[in-house]
């Protein structure tokens, strides 16, 4: 699993979050673009992507937004 992107997000209260995007290589060629993406906070909590700009923290149900 390769780290392919990092970005900042905020909750409705303005709380900042650091999001990391990992991608699993599926085809054995080293091309991460062929795999599935996993989103998580820098502290390891899993995210459910609702759109390209909106995510839900699975543990708490809080929605956060890309900034």
Mind explaining what this structure looks like?
This protein has a 6-stranded antiparallel β-barrel. It is mostly beta strands. β1 and β2 form a beta hairpin. The model has no long low-confidence stretch (mean pLDDT 90). It has no helices and 6 strands. Helix content is 0%, strand content 52%.
Question: Which keywords apply here?
Answer:
67 residues; mainly beta; six-stranded antiparallel barrel; 6 strands; elongated
Give the topology string: H per helix, E per strand. Answer: EEEEEE
Give start-end ranges of low-pLDDT stretches. none
Tally of individual helices: 0
Biggest sheet statistics:
6 strands, antiparallel, barrel
On the 0-100 scale, what is the average pLDDT? 90
Calculate Rg over CA atoms.
Answer: 13 Å
State the strand order across the main sheet.
1-2-3-4-5-6
Task: State the share of residues found in helices, binned by percent.
Answer: under 10%
Describe the global form.
Answer: elongated
Strand tally: 6
Strand content: over 45%
* Distance linking N and C termini: 25 Å
């Amino acid at each position: 699993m390769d780290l392919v992107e990092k970005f900042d997000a905020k909750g409705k209260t303005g709380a900042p979050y650091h999001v990391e995007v990992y991608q699993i290589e599926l085809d054995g060629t080293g091309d991460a673009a062929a795999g599935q993406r996993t989103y998580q906070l820098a502290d390891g909590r899993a995210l459910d992507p609702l759109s390209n700009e909106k995510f839900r923290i699975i543990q708490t149900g809080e929605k956060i937004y890309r900034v």
